[in-house]
Protein backbone atom coordinates (compact mmCIF):
# COMPACT_ATOMS: atom_id res chain seq x y z
CA UNK A 1 0.00 0.00 0.00
CA UNK A 2 2.14 2.78 -1.34
CA UNK A 3 1.14 5.90 -3.25
CA UNK A 4 3.57 5.73 -6.16
CA UNK A 5 6.79 3.84 -5.43
CA UNK A 6 8.41 1.81 -2.66
CA UNK A 7 10.87 4.39 -1.37
CA UNK A 8 8.58 7.36 -0.89
CA UNK A 9 8.78 7.16 2.91
CA UNK A 10 12.59 7.25 2.81
CA UNK A 11 12.61 10.31 0.59
CA UNK A 12 10.13 12.06 2.89
CA UNK A 13 12.35 11.11 5.85
CA UNK A 14 15.43 12.55 4.17
CA UNK A 15 13.57 15.79 3.43
CA UNK A 16 12.31 16.07 7.04
CA UNK A 17 15.80 15.34 8.34
CA UNK A 18 17.26 18.07 6.14
CA UNK A 19 14.59 20.46 7.41
CA UNK A 20 15.69 19.75 10.98
CA UNK A 21 19.38 20.14 10.15
CA UNK A 22 18.59 23.45 8.47
CA UNK A 23 16.60 24.54 11.50
CA UNK A 24 19.65 24.11 13.74
CA UNK A 25 21.88 26.04 11.33
CA UNK A 26 24.86 23.66 11.62
CA UNK A 27 25.58 23.11 7.91
CA UNK A 28 23.04 25.49 6.39
CA UNK A 29 20.30 27.71 7.74
CA UNK A 30 16.67 27.06 6.86
CA UNK A 31 14.15 28.51 9.30
CA UNK A 32 10.58 28.12 8.09
CA UNK A 33 7.16 28.64 9.59
CA UNK A 34 6.24 26.15 12.31
CA UNK A 35 3.16 25.17 10.29
CA UNK A 36 5.34 24.07 7.35
CA UNK A 37 7.27 21.77 9.68
CA UNK A 38 3.98 20.38 11.00
CA UNK A 39 2.72 19.71 7.46
CA UNK A 40 6.01 18.04 6.48
CA UNK A 41 6.00 15.75 9.51
CA UNK A 42 2.31 14.88 9.13
CA UNK A 43 2.99 13.88 5.51
CA UNK A 44 6.01 11.89 6.68
CA UNK A 45 3.83 10.14 9.29
CA UNK A 46 1.33 9.13 6.62
CA UNK A 47 4.14 7.63 4.52
CA UNK A 48 5.47 5.78 7.58
CA UNK A 49 2.05 4.32 8.39
CA UNK A 50 1.65 3.19 4.78
CA UNK A 51 5.10 1.60 4.96
CA UNK A 52 4.19 -0.28 8.14
CA UNK A 53 0.98 -1.56 6.53
CA UNK A 54 2.93 -2.56 3.43
CA UNK A 55 5.52 -4.45 5.49
CA UNK A 56 2.86 -6.33 7.42
CA UNK A 57 0.93 -7.17 4.25
CA UNK A 58 3.92 -8.56 2.39
CA UNK A 59 5.84 -10.91 4.67
CA UNK A 60 7.73 -12.61 1.81
CA UNK A 61 10.89 -10.55 2.34
CA UNK A 62 13.67 -11.71 4.64
CA UNK A 63 12.50 -11.70 8.28
CA UNK A 64 15.47 -9.60 9.43
CA UNK A 65 14.69 -6.85 6.92
CA UNK A 66 11.06 -6.79 8.03
CA UNK A 67 12.00 -6.53 11.72
CA UNK A 68 14.57 -3.79 11.13
CA UNK A 69 12.22 -1.94 8.80
CA UNK A 70 9.41 -2.01 11.35
CA UNK A 71 11.75 -0.93 14.15
CA UNK A 72 13.10 1.93 12.04
CA UNK A 73 9.57 2.96 11.04
CA UNK A 74 8.45 3.02 14.68
CA UNK A 75 11.42 5.20 15.66
CA UNK A 76 10.73 7.49 12.68
CA UNK A 77 7.08 7.70 13.70
CA UNK A 78 8.06 8.63 17.26
CA UNK A 79 10.40 11.35 16.00
CA UNK A 80 7.71 12.66 13.64
CA UNK A 81 5.08 12.71 16.41
CA UNK A 82 7.47 14.53 18.75
CA UNK A 83 8.18 17.21 16.17
CA UNK A 84 4.49 17.55 15.27
CA UNK A 85 3.78 18.17 18.95
CA UNK A 86 6.78 20.48 19.29
CA UNK A 87 5.98 22.70 16.30
CA UNK A 88 2.20 22.73 16.62
CA UNK A 89 1.80 22.83 20.39
CA UNK A 90 -0.68 19.93 20.21
CA UNK A 91 -0.71 17.66 23.20
CA UNK A 92 -0.05 14.11 22.00
CA UNK A 93 -0.37 11.70 24.93
CA UNK A 94 2.96 10.37 26.20
CA UNK A 95 4.90 11.96 23.30
CA UNK A 96 4.49 15.53 24.51
CA UNK A 97 5.50 14.80 28.09
CA UNK A 98 8.28 12.31 27.34
CA UNK A 99 10.02 13.58 24.21
CA UNK A 100 9.15 17.21 23.50
CA UNK A 101 11.15 18.63 26.47
CA UNK A 102 14.30 17.24 24.84
CA UNK A 103 13.62 19.24 21.67
CA UNK A 104 14.53 22.51 23.34
CA UNK A 105 18.18 21.54 22.80
CA UNK A 106 19.47 22.33 19.27
CA UNK A 107 21.99 19.49 19.46
CA UNK A 108 19.23 16.90 19.89
CA UNK A 109 17.27 18.40 17.01
CA UNK A 110 20.41 18.16 14.88
CA UNK A 111 20.99 14.53 15.88
CA UNK A 112 17.35 13.65 15.16
CA UNK A 113 17.76 15.22 11.72
CA UNK A 114 20.98 13.29 11.14
CA UNK A 115 19.26 10.05 12.20
CA UNK A 116 16.46 10.70 9.72
CA UNK A 117 18.85 11.51 6.88
CA UNK A 118 21.40 8.74 7.48
CA UNK A 119 18.87 6.05 8.38
CA UNK A 120 16.66 6.76 5.39
CA UNK A 121 19.61 6.99 2.97
CA UNK A 122 20.67 3.52 4.14
CA UNK A 123 17.15 2.17 3.54
CA UNK A 124 17.06 3.91 0.17
CA UNK A 125 20.27 2.09 -0.78
CA UNK A 126 18.83 -1.23 0.48
CA UNK A 127 15.55 -1.07 -1.47
CA UNK A 128 16.95 -2.55 -4.72
CA UNK A 129 18.03 -5.64 -2.76
CA UNK A 130 14.66 -6.03 -1.03
CA UNK A 131 12.42 -6.15 -4.09
Sum up the structure in keywords:
5 helices, globular, mainly alpha, 131 residues
Distance between the termini: 14 Å
Radius of gyration: 15 Å
**Hey, roughly how much beta strand do the residues contain?**
under 5%
The biggest sheet amounts to: none
How would you state the average pLDDT, rounded? 86
Shape: globular
**Broad structural category:** mainly alpha
How many alpha or pi helices? 5
Task: Kindly state the percentage of residues in helix.
Answer: over 70%
Contiguous low-pLDDT stretches (5 residues minimum) are none
The succession of helices and strands, N to C, reads HHHHH
Number of distinct beta strands = 0
Report what the structure shows:
The protein has 5 helices and no strands. It is mainly alpha-helical and 131 residues long. The chain is globular and about 40 Å long. The model has no long low-confidence stretch (mean pLDDT 86).
Question: Quick summary of this structure?
Answer:
The chain is mainly alpha-helical.
Task: Describe the protein's topology.
Layout: H1 8-24, H2 34-57, H3 63-88, H4 95-98, H5 106-130
Amino acid sequence: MKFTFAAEDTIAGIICGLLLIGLTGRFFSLKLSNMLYVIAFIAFSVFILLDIVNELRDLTTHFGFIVFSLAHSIVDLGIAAAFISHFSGWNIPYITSAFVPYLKNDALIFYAGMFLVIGNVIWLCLYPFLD
